[in-house]
Amino acid sequence: MKSGNLSLEGISKVFDAIGNPRRLEMFLYVVNEGPTSIDELFENSALDIEGSTKTFHLNRLRGTGLILAERIDGYRLRLTANPSRISEAMNSLETIMKGEKENERDSPIGYENVQELS
Known about the structure:
CATH class: Mainly Alpha
Number of domains: 1
Largest sheet: 3 strands, antiparallel
CATH architecture: Orthogonal Bundle
Strand order of the largest sheet: 3-5-4
């Protein structure tokens, strides 16, 4: 099912990304500090985890569009937060929920008995 800008899978990925405390902390660091390099993020955030784990979490944030990366100087990345992605996920979820309520009213057997196949 696709509604609004994000599919159910996309919505789930955004909420999963910020649902992890370490990823949320990284995201909020970039939101509060503004554009930053990976080195600054890893050195200045309070995360007490290995570099490879930080990279894993950063890649999850980038994969959902919550953190955008722009290459500068040919090799370094500048990270920018994209908090509007959370609003996009919320709006998409709200649109889907409204659509399902309409389906529930229109269904003669009741929505709880209807399963959607993806």
